[in-house]
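Fig. S4 source data, part A: sequence.
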Amino acid sequence: MKIINEKEFDNEIKSGVTLVDFFATWCMPCRMMGQILDEVEESEKNVNFVKVDVDENPNLARSFGVMSIPTLIIFKDGQEKEKHIGVWQGEELKETLKKYL
């Protein structure tokens, strides 16, 4: 998954469906979520998957109300559609993404 910063963010989410994973490298649940996302990304080719490191982009994380990690936000055409805090199981995540495709 591509790791993006504040400068790249708006361009990444502006069109289509994008799942943004707000994470930190030291966070164990974030690592678990990363493995799940890698698997989901393989099957969901119509979704853009990106990660934002909250330690390197605190203002971006704050602007979306990220208080706990991992936090996953689904955007469609630049608009926030759904937010999930904590580890999201693969099948449940896939079903949720399908609502926006």
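Fig. S4 source data, part B ends here. The mean pLDDT is 97.
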